[in-house]
């Protein structure tokens, strides 16, 4: 291998390495120490390629207030990705779409609907919506589950 080829090969290696690093989806999850379904949701994120930074919090109410989660949107855990909140059992698909929504402050699945990721109870599939909070302060339905109804 001559020098020029060697440099080209090295550059290709570096570029693919950088692309891999950019694909790493890092998300911070804040949760109560005793929250089992929160751990279920973390498993769902990891299965979908997210790297989860798990934070056990003494006061989730304070965390939600700090991150701007409106009380009507509240659930158990609160996550943060790219400076935006992800409240409750939001499916990975919508978290990925959030990157293309600069108009949204965050996403939420209010409450804890059965059948959402981390809230599996056998075959039970409650209807639920994924809500986006716009910068203007409005709620917008970004997805409805179960899908295809
Ligand atoms: Cu939960």
Report the structural category: alpha/beta
Going by CATH, the architecture would be 3-Layer(aba) Sandwich
**Which parts are unreliable, with pLDDT below 50 for 5 consecutive residues or more?**
none
**Number of discrete helical segments:** 4
Which geometry do the CA atoms define? globular
Write structural notes for this entry.
The protein has 149 residues and is α/β, with parallel strands linked by helices. The chain has a single domain, classed as Glutaredoxin (3-Layer(aba) Sandwich), CATH 3.40.30.10. The chain is 32% helix and 29% strand. The protein contains four helices and seven strands, in the order H-E-H-E-H-E-E-H-E-E-E. The chain has helices at 3-23, 36-47, 60-67, 92-98, and strands at 25-31, 50-56, 78-81, 84-88, 104-109, 128-134, 139-145. It has a seven-stranded mixed beta sheet, sandwiched between helices. It is globular. The mean pLDDT is 90. The structure holds copper (II) ion. Copper (II) ion is lined by residues 37-38, 75-76, 89, 112, 119. InterPro entries: DUF411. Keywords: Signal. Residues 1-21 form the signal peptide.
